[in-house]
Amino acid sequence: MDSPSLRQLDIFAQMVAAGGVARCADALGVGVEQVLRDLASLEMRLGYRLFEDLNGEARLTPAGRKTAQAMTLLSEDRPAPVEKPAAAPAPIPPSLLQPAAPFIPSPAVPDGPPRQVITLAAPPPVFGHFQDALAAFEAANEDIAITLDLHVHTAQDAAVALADRRADIAYFYALEEPADLKSRYGWSEPLNLYADSGHPLARADSVSRADLSMTPMLSLETRSGMRDIIDAALAKGRVRNVMPLLESDNMFEIIAALRDGAGCFAAFGTLARDLGRMSGIKRLALDIPLPAVEIRQAIAPRAAEKPAVEALAEFLFL
């Protein structure tokens, strides 16, 4: 799950441990507003809510609990920070990583059969798309537990996760069917460009590639899996792919730059949906649409060893 900034993930971990915004801010030595901004930016990037009530005793949503579980994988892989943070994030208490309804049913009785674990690998926004379906599947199959790997973004990521047995089912971003990974098409999400409503391109009835060549771009950071597919789509769509004016995983920085008229920003999926709902930000009327981003599903070759894997893969297509 390397697409959101590590700072935001650290704050999320501290929030889980602290159980409240004020306690989290005090532990990190920052203001409450900073914590709220970083959490809101993280939720916007992920495409789903992490907490039920940030004004009181913050409670994790079912999706938030799954994300906290997946963060234990991230903590094993991420590099050490260059600078020591003001306050080290508290470890997530094991009790908060335990399954919670509706995602995970009650534990099996001691003498009962062990529950079968299915690992779903997907970009975080794709997990957000499926969270209700996953809850329904687990509720109907009490002998199944679903875990997440939120590292996967590309076909290469998916192939490695499936080959290394880190995942049973993988969803990934693509612009077309990959030649070296058997997969099937799930759905497409249009890629659009956004700018401040007062920007000359936002006021134009039609925006050409020549118009875009003279406009600075704002982008996510290079380590973001979403950034990779966006750059590939822009290149395929003949939009110049040069060093952007701003690179940030903090959506509030991106939005502030957009509203200052600094340039345009490419987005798809839930991030594009949220941008399109914001006052003062407008989708550009491109004369030629950009390539859509496909979300594709791949299943591990060993799926026959777990009949429930194929059942879940089909259920997610219903």
From TrEMBL:
Keywords: DNA-binding, Transcription, Transcription regulation. Gene3D superfamilies: 3.40.190.290, Winged helix-like DNA-binding domain superfamily/Winged helix DNA-binding domain. GO terms for molecular function: DNA binding; DNA-binding transcription factor activity. InterPro entries: LysR_HTH_N (IPR000847), LysR_subst-bd (IPR005119), WH-like_DNA-bd_sf (IPR036388), WH_DNA-bd_sf (IPR036390). GO terms for cellular component: protein-DNA complex. Pfam families: HTH_1 (PF00126), LysR_substrate (PF03466). The keyword Cell inner membrane does not apply. Residues 112-316 form the LysR substrate-binding domain. Residues 6-65 form the HTH lysR-type domain. SUPFAM superfamilies: Periplasmic binding protein-like II (SSF53850), Winged helix' DNA-binding domain (SSF46785). Belongs to the LysR transcriptional regulatory family. This is LysR family transcriptional regulator.
